[in-house]
Amino acid sequence: MQKRHKRLLVALLMLFGLTLLVPGVIAMFHPEPAGLNGQLVDQANQFRALHGMMAGLGVMACLACYRIERERTLVIGIGLTLALVAAARVYSLVSEGLPDWSTLLYLTIESILALIFLMYPPPADNTRVS
Question: What are the domain boundaries of the chain?
Answer without folding.
Answer: 3-119
